[in-house]
Amino acid sequence: MDVLTARTDTGDPAYLAFAFIRIKGSPDVHTLGLTFGDRVAVATQSFAAGPGTVLTLHQIKLLDGTLQDSLPSIDLDSYFHAPELDTLYVENVNRWVRRSVPGTNQELCSVVPSQFRHHNMDRLPLRFSPREKIKSAQKARTLLPTRIAKDSVRLGSHTVSYTVDASRDLNGVGLVYFASYFSFADTALLAYWEKLSRPLESFLARRVIDNRMCYFSNADPGTVLSISVTGYRYPASMPDDGELIDIRITDRHTGELLALNSQHVFAR
Amino acid sequence: MDVLTARTDTGDPAYLAFAFIRIKGSPDVHTLGLTFGDRVAVATQSFAAGPGTVLTLHQIKLLDGTLQDSLPSIDLDSYFHAPELDTLYVENVNRWVRRSVPGTNQELCSVVPSQFRHHNMDRLPLRFSPREKIKSAQKARTLLPTRIAKDSVRLGSHTVSYTVDASRDLNGVGLVYFASYFSFADTALLAYWEKLSRPLESFLARRVIDNRMCYFSNADPGTVLSISVTGYRYPASMPDDGELIDIRITDRHTGELLALNSQHVFAR
């Protein structure tokens, strides 16, 4: 089947939508550190993580001339439990969805196109299933450990409103584009930065070594979002471990949770 | 040479920046009509258009099963003077630039990296040179014919302010991304649409059959832009030929012209 033109059994378009994304690097290798002309090697593997859910893992290394162009295939235990400092780890969870009512992006529902076959994909051992972490984040309304407020120093918080822009936030099928959620979060992060009187230069030079986004709902263009940002730092008694950012994107009118984002940021 | 990591003779980064983009289609084939899963065939050719200027032409056709995957090479006369209705024509003009002062995006200046060789590129016959049209647009401060105000009906105009966003408008080297200029223009176009009390659905369903952007200056993040939109329609005595949109992007503080955009739009 062609995943980009998939249809439900009743002939409606079906989309393999993002449910979760994590981009994990290190102070040495992080997304904002990449630039034009960098050469990278990528290893990618997809796994069936339930009947209508696909987990895709990428490992990305900067090529420095000594490294071979191809990487060994992904080992799940090292991927999740023994990450290396010179590697960027990108984890995507995608689920099949369809519109519940034509013409609106609200209340997308799960569907598995009957042509979709996951039997020839590698099966994901249950201990690596993303399901539990998504469920518990939704329940706790944060991707950070729930003890964070007790264990750390609260640096500040800030909430902005943002209207979903029909001219730049939608993808080719009229849904809010998955990458736009990162723009929403980063726009609010910039406002938080300015509220704490930090210079723009330090925002541009920040290193985001871990960035997670959990998607719960899409939205129609024109929807007013409320995006709240809270920053935490571990107590001064501990070695500098950067700043943890907790971002919550909700529909300002209904209060519905659209997405959660957490970022581990080193500011310069 | 690697165009993405080019340096000037003094070792500073050099960028092959966009100076002009035109995307020309028809009511049948236009960018907003493309979606996930569409298969296209592309023919591309680059030409030397002066010592530090490159013109790149693309012809794009939707594959419908009967069409071969490859297109014949580009013929300049047909490209510019006999376009076909089933083809999308994308024209890029790029010029080598460098920062005049490190740390700012203002006043980029021309530079040709000495490693850059254009002798093995096809030379562009002078009659197709983009130079004159860029110069006359800059002088007239519009990409539309200067008689447009006389020959047509003015539908309305609207000006918005927009602050260049450090979190979403920059590219990997800290310059305002060329595609962000289209977002700036379209954000203002949406505001114009709303001012004329047109429904959001008609904005989303619009067909942009010609879209030109002429770049004159970059900008630092935090710069406040003034984006003005004026719409024209030919007199009712003529057959419906859509709407011509004239967009001007300036620095609100200094008045400097950053870019001109024109769009030929059919609203539904």
UniProtKB/TrEMBL annotation, chains A, B:
Coiled coil feature spans: none
InterPro entries linked: LnmK-like_bifun_acyl/decarbox (IPR024091), LnmK_N_HDF (IPR040718)
Pfam families linked: LnmK_N_HDF (PF18238)
Domain LnmK N-terminal positions: 2-144
Official protein name in the record: Putative biosynthetic protein (TIGR04098 family)
